[in-house]
């Protein structure tokens, strides 16, 4: 027992303790303010570049396409070509068809296309940095006030250190929708959240545990959904009946009523007392196919899934094979 305690103490001593290099609250506040202003300035510069790129057309068009260039310019002058907003441009990172609406010329050149995508990724990362510096600036304000009042500010300093140590452990270009989630939600995906999401993606049927308040519903579930929706498969989100309403409302605010996502959500309640026939079950399957086609998600409860499963056995006992086959397809 003494050896175990000694080993535990030795391990604890090896853990590096992080401290702020300066204890001057006002100096920290000034640093955060400077970095926020710099991030905001760079973000606006990249934004202006992207907006200008969307209005550009090829100056060296061949004679075969010169008429199309002139026609496109006339349509733009007449207001027949919509002007893209930044959220709409962000959607082009996972849907190239969005660019065709605003400026098809970007897709003609691989170099221009890759340069434009790199600019969008840079803009998103600058947005995340600007939001992070805003959070640190608020903490810096609290630190200055607590220092002036002579209050204990150790908890604020720990929060600042924790925020400064948060780094992105995943490649932004591999997961543009996760980057868009960070920008749209004003969050930063923590390494622990990424590890859990990655484990769920790589290990089919994996069971992961995370303490309350660490972002299961508001961070990890949207991460998994935005990943699986690109695989063109039916995404089912299962929640306890006590939590499904809250989870659905949050997903509606974050994913449906979002400026960067236009996600359609579906709820499928079911009870064994419901009378089913072949026509109604086909409607259910049609809705599921539509959900896959538009990249939506289905919310269900364990009770509804269990009732549907038991209904399948009930129909099999009645020798209603067609209805059973339709339920099995779901």
TrEMBL record:
State the source organism's domain of life.
Eukaryota
Q: Which UniProt keywords apply?
A: Hydrolase, Protease, Thiol protease, Ubl conjugation pathway
| Classification via Pfam families | DUF3638
Q: Which GO terms describe its biological process?
A: proteolysis
Which lineage do the record's taxonomy fields give for this organism?
A: Eukaryota, Sar, Stramenopiles, Ochrophyta, Pelagophyceae
Which PANTHER family does the record match to this protein?
P-LOOP CONTAINING NUCLEOSIDE TRIPHOSPHATE HYDROLASE PROTEIN, UBIQUITIN THIOESTERASE
Q: Which GO terms describe its molecular function?
A: cysteine-type deubiquitinase activity
List, for all copies, the residue spans of the domain called DUF3638: 168-321
Q: Span of the secretion signal? A: none
Which EC numbers characterise this protein's activity in its record? Answer: 3.4.19.12
Put simply, this protein is called: ubiquitinyl hydrolase 1
């Amino acid at each position: 027992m003494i050896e175990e305690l000694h080993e535990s103490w030795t391990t604890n001593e090896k853990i590096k303790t992080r401290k702020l290099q300066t204890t001057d609250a006002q100096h920290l506040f000034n640093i955060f303010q400077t970095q926020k202003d710099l991030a905001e300035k760079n973000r606006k510069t990249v934004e202006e570049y992207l907006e200008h790129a969307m209005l550009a057309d090829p100056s060296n068009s061949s004679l075969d396409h010169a008429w199309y260039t002139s026609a496109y310019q006339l349509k733009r002058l007449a207001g027949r070509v919509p002007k893209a907003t930044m959220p709409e441009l962000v959607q082009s990172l996972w849907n190239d068809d969005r660019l065709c609406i605003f400026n098809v010329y970007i897709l003609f050149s691989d170099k221009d296309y890759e340069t434009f995508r790199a600019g969008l990724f840079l803009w998103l990362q600058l947005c995340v940095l600007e939001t992070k510096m805003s959070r640190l600036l608020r903490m810096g304000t609290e630190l200055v006030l607590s220092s002036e009042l002579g209050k204990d500010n150790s908890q604020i300093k720990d929060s600042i250190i924790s925020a400064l140590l948060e780094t992105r452990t995943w490649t932004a270009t591999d997961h543009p929708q996760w980057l868009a989630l960070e920008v749209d939600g004003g969050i930063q995906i923590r390494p622990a959240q990424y590890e859990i999401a990655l484990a769920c993606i790589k290990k089919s049927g994996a069971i992961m545990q995370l303490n309350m308040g660490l972002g299961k519903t508001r961070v990890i579930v949207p991460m998994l959904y935005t990943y699986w929706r690109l695989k063109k498969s039916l995404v089912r989100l299962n929640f306890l009946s006590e939590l499904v309403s809250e989870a659905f409302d949050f997903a509606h605010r974050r994913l449906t009523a979002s400026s960067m996502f236009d996600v359609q959500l579906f709820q499928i309640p079911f009870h064994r007392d419901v009378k089913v026939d072949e026509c109604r079950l086909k409607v259910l399957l049609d809705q599921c196919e539509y959900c896959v086609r538009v990249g939506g998600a289905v919310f269900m409860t364990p009770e509804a899934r269990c009732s549907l499963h038991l209904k399948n056995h009930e129909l099999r006992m009645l020798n209603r094979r067609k209805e059973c086959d339709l339920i099995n397809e779901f």
